[in-house]
Amino acid sequence: MTLPAFRVLRPASVEQAVRLLADAGPEATVIAGGTDVVPNLQMRLVAPRFLVDIKGLEELRGIGFDERDGLRLGALATLADIAASAAVERGFPVLAGAAQSVAGPLQRNMGTLGGNLCLETRCVWYNQSEFWRVSLGGCLKKDGDVCHVAPGGRRCWAVWSGDMAPALLTLEAELEVAGPRGRRRVPLDKFYRNDGMDRIALEAGELVVAVRVPAAAAFRRGSYRKLRVRDSIDYPLAGVAVAMAVDAAGICRAARLALGAVNPAPRLVPAAAERLEGKRYSPELIEEVAYEAIRTAKPLTTSASTPVYRRDMVRLYTRRALEDLWRA
Ligand SMILES: Cc1cc2nc3c(=O)[nH]c(=O)nc-3n(C[C@H](O)[C@H](O)[C@H](O)COP(=O)(O)OP(=O)(O)OC[C@H]3O[C@@H](n4cnc5c(N)ncnc54)[C@H](O)[C@@H]3O)c2cc1C
Question: What is 58-118+159-327's CATH number?
């Protein structure tokens, strides 16, 4: 599949990038590693006049940790950098696990954290060639007015299929965003809109600069488990991230559980913290939390797997993650 025609713009600073994006409006698309944008261009899912290539922006690079300010991950940190970082592995195992699980080595070397957090949502009716889509008359998300997943509905169920967001949700991460009106911080749990067509809360001209994880979330036990067709490369069909702190007496002092790839947004399961914190391990408690996880998961037929199987795997992965982490 060939690429459409476009102009590549290479800003020299974040301020210039933001100005270019604000001036061009919907005619511009940001490109970082390009591992999502390029296939989408080839399939004509997007056809911008301008690609704003942010790879040269030094401010968006780097991974740093200190015990007062916590972890800062530049938006251009690659998934391979994050997976290989000693600070991440030591202090944030759920994040290291998620980074290691993304796609294959090629995508991890090219793909960036910012691109991962701003991915397009995915659906079996959407991620197809233009020829394939046109033969069906399009869908709500692109060139049509019907949802093939839930016919009659006006909602797009395309799925959030990134691995890093659930892990970062368990660590109470925030985004640093730059835009035409200056800088702001956005808690990650307010960033996703749970709408397949309007996925993230970035305003026109805005750019993710970095991700911040508070020091209080460091050194928690962590696990990321992922269901996919081929372990060597595929997007998640379900992702379960857990971070927890357990004291010397075996009592859970903090717990966060988040899910990916089973809704149009990555989702925290707030009932998990409510049920786990202050408690000791018991198989009944684990089962209750696993039940809360499947109540949050709403997978539909948007991928090459059935909703029932994906929900079952969410339950199993939640149970296994909690058992392993509690006993670690
Ligand atoms: C075969 C294959 C398998 C894959 N498997 C997985 C997988 O298992 N798990 C997974 O999570 N992903 C997967 N991906 C998707 C992708 O490789 C990764 O998510 C990667 O991290 C995307 O980063 P990127 O820099 O390449 O993003 P890009 O393609 O450059 O950008 C992705 C989106 O983010 C926007 N964007 C990029 N950077 C910024 C920024 N700083 N601020 C605002 N917007 C920004 C772009 O405009 C675009 O909409 C897969 C891709 C392929 C091709």
Answer: 3.30.390.50
